């Protein structure tokens, strides 16, 4: 088995995946807040 060297792994793909996850989460939160505001105003 090869010797492990901390910090030597290529993590570009993981970083792209995590950035996509954060973007999706951010837009999801904005959408949910927008829906809640719309429901609050429509029910008033």
Automatic annotation (TrEMBL):
Taxonomically, the superkingdom here is: Bacteria
Transmembrane residue ranges = 21-42
Any idea where the Cytochrome c oxidase subunit IV bacterial aa3 type domain is?
4-43
Name the InterPro entries for this protein: Cyt-C_aa3_sf, Cyt_c_oxidase_su4_bac-aa3
UniProt-listed Pfam families: COX4_pro_2
Q: What is the lineage of its organism?
A: Bacteria, Pseudomonadati, Pseudomonadota, Alphaproteobacteria, Rhodobacterales
Q: What is the official name of this protein in its record? A: Aa3-type cytochrome c oxidase subunit IV
Q: Which UniProt keywords apply?
A: Membrane, Transmembrane, Transmembrane helix
């Amino acid at each position: 088995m090869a010797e492990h060297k901390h910090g030597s792994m290529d993590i570009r793909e993981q970083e792209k995946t995590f950035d996509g996850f954060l973007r999706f989460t951010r837009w999801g939160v904005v959408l949910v807040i927008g829906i809640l505001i719309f429901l609050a105003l429509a029910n008033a």
